[in-house]
TrEMBL record:
Coiled coil: none
Keyword annotations from UniProtKB, A to Z: Cell membrane, G-protein coupled receptor, Membrane, Olfaction, Receptor, Sensory transduction, Transducer, Transmembrane, Transmembrane helix
Domain of life: Eukaryota
GO cellular component: plasma membrane
Subcellular location: Cell membrane
Membrane association type: Multi-pass membrane protein
Domain G-protein coupled receptors family 1 profile: 41-290
Function: Putative odorant or sperm cell receptor.
Family matches, as Pfam families: 7tm_4
Sequence intervals crossing the membrane: 26-48, 60-86, 92-120, 140-158, 197-225, 237-260, 272-292
Name listed for the protein in its UniProt record: Olfactory receptor
Designated gene of the protein: OR13J1B
Entry-linked Gene3D superfamilies: Rhodopsin 7-helix transmembrane proteins
Record-stated family: Belongs to the G-protein coupled receptor 1 family.
Length: 312
């Protein structure tokens, strides 16, 4: 077997939508608007949940974490993607690529775990209301949220180090608009089996397992709400569950499609469209689905806004 010629990589070229100028012109204003809504909506949720004492509950604590995650997640790649949509120079340094890959994997993995934790929190609140303050204590909230962040970071660092230590040869063109790990691995000329095994194990632990847990939690919630005598109470619970499940299915469905489908040597434009769907659209919808439809959040937002206006 002949040795593979590999050279030190200093930068990568992110192909993105280069072959589709019409898509670049479409995605720039669209992604800019969605990113702005994501920043404003999620920042608003964090500010309101911190400033209003009535929202100092486990549910809003986890919502605050989700909002911070969504801001970090989209900020790992959207600003650079927007620059590249308007520029012919679509390069990123080797270190920048590794950092972007690690942060994107970390925040995405943490969000998978956090969505499952949030479903468990709602299960306890609806199905075990009398014991809820004891079962979901302040200390447990911090422990669960901290564990999700740490586990996501450890997983992503491991996967990134293994992937970026591989030898790269030939062209440096990443067939994606970010340093997405699967797209980068296609450029490696060494044995990628170890990296693929880590990705598969991580995908199984963070995709089907949490999703099954979420579905089980909401099934139990549904069974409990069906026994609620009040029609208004049942309607509120059904509305909340359906909204939460819609975002969960959107996020998990597209991620499972990306990371658990059969590996292909050829890059497809559909992969990048799906990435935009789960990485840009979902964080934008989360404030609306999880919080802005909630009367408590609306009242708290009005109260905080009134405070700001009064202090001027």
């Amino acid at each position: 077997m002949e040795p593979v010629n590999s050279t030190e990589v200093s930068e990568f070229f992110l192909k993105g939508f280069s072959g589709y100028p019409a898509l670049e012109h479409l995605f720039f204003p669209l992604c800019s608007a969605m990113y702005l809504v994501t920043l404003l909506g999620n920042t608003g949720i964090v500010v309101v949940s911190v400033l209003d004492a009535r929202l100092h509950t486990p549910m809003y604590f986890f919502l605050g974490n989700l909002s911070i995650l969504d801001i970090c997640y989209t900020s790992t790649f959207v600003p650079l993607m927007l620059v590249h949509l308007l520029s012919a120079q679509k390069t990123i340094s080797f270190l920048g690529c590794a950092l972007q890959m690690c942060l994107s994997l970390s925040t995405g993995s943490t969000e998978c775990l956090l969505l499952a934790i949030m479903a468990y929190d709602r299960y306890l609140a609806i199905c075990r209301p009398l014991r809820y303050p004891v079962l979901m204590s302040h200390q447990l909230c911090w422990l669960l949220a901290g564990a999700a962040w740490v586990l996501g970071l450890c997983k992503s660092v491991t996967e990134t180090v293994i992937a970026m230590r591989l030898p790269f040869c030939g062209h440096r063109v990443v067939s994606h608009f970010t340093c997405e790990i699967l797209a980068v691995l296609k450029l490696a000329c060494g044995d990628t089996s170890i990296s693929e095994v880590f990705l598969l194990v991580g995908a199984i632990l963070l995709l089907p397992v949490p999703l099954a847990f979420i579905c089980l939690s909401y099934t139990l919630i549904l069974a409990t709400t069906l026994r609620v005598p009040s029609a208004a109470g049942r309607h509120k619970a059904f509305s909340t569950c359906s909204a939460h499940l819609a975002v969960v299915m959107l996020f998990y469905g597209t991620v499972i499609f990306m990371y658990m489908k059969p590996k292909s040597k050829e890059a497809h434009i559909s992969d990048e469209v799906f990435t935009v769907l789960y990485a840009v659209v979902t964080p934008m919808l989360n404030p609306v689905i999880y919080s802005l439809r909630n009367k408590e959040v609306k009242e708290a937002a009005r109260k905080v806004w009134g405070r700001i206006q009064t202090s001027r």
